[in-house]
Design a protein that fits this description.
The structure is a single chain. This protein has 185 residues and is of the alpha/beta class. It has a single domain, classed as Dihydrofolate Reductase, subunit A (3-Layer(aba) Sandwich), CATH 3.40.430. 26% of the residues lie in helices and 29% in strands. The chain contains five helices and ten strands, in the order ββαβααββαβαββββ. It has an eight-stranded mixed β-sheet, with helices on both faces. Strand 9 and strand 10 form a beta hairpin. The protein starts with a strand and ends with a strand. 29% of the residues are buried.
């Protein structure tokens, strides 16, 4: 069975999306970007909410950017090779290959996807991930903590859910970013 993985750039105070501005610094350098690409290279399917998909669809053409560095081209190629499922009631069409729209998040359907998949899946975006976490579907968590406290926004972990996790890896980067890798017990 494949694993369902949730990982995002996160502020030091636990927000995956800031109420105002961005999540701060630490994630923008080549070392971090390459590490994130290497960490998620094995993913076969991305599960997205509409807003996260609209952010990530940049990677459909990022390899064509003039002066795109090798780590950007590699991440774009990896992203393009994976399947994408976008959960949205409002999105009319997609602008990337290997992508389909589902109108509702169905935990039973995601369980079947995990059981049938030959490569891991990710759930991306804190709102969609909250549904997967509440349904007990997420097997691993990757927090990439920036050096900033943003004071509000959408939390990485949803309120009202208790999780007891096992730390399986950690790494500090020169930029100040920290990677924390947890698995469910």
């Amino acid at each position: 069975m494949a694993r369902l993985v949730y990982g995002m750039i996160t502020s030091l105070d636990g927000y995956a999306s800031a109420a105002e501005g961005d999540l701060g610094s630490g994630a923008e350098d080549e070392e971090v970007h390459t590490y994130i690409g290497d960490t998620f290279r094995h993913v076969g399917t991305y599960l997205y909410g509409r807003r996260m998909y609209e952010t990530m669809v940049f990677w459909e053409t990022a390899h064509d950017l003039p002066d795109a560095p090798p780590h950007v081209v590699q991440y774009a190629r990896d992203w393009q090779a994976a399947e994408k499922v976008v959960y949205s009631t409002t999105l009319e069409s997609v602008s990337s290959e290997r992508t389909r729209i589902e109108r509702t998040f169905d935990p039973a359907a995601v369980r079947r996807l995990k059981a049938e998949a030959t490569a891991d899946l990710t759930v991306d975006g804190p709102t969609l991930a909250a549904q997967a976490i509440a349904a007990g579907l997420v097997d691993e968590y990757h927090l990439f903590l920036t050096t900033s406290v943003v004071g509000g926004g959408t939390r990485f972990f949803p309120d009202g859910v208790r999780l007891d996790l096992e730390l399986v890896g950690q790494r500090a980067f020169d930029s100040g970013l920290l990677h924390l890798h947890y698995r469910t017990r």
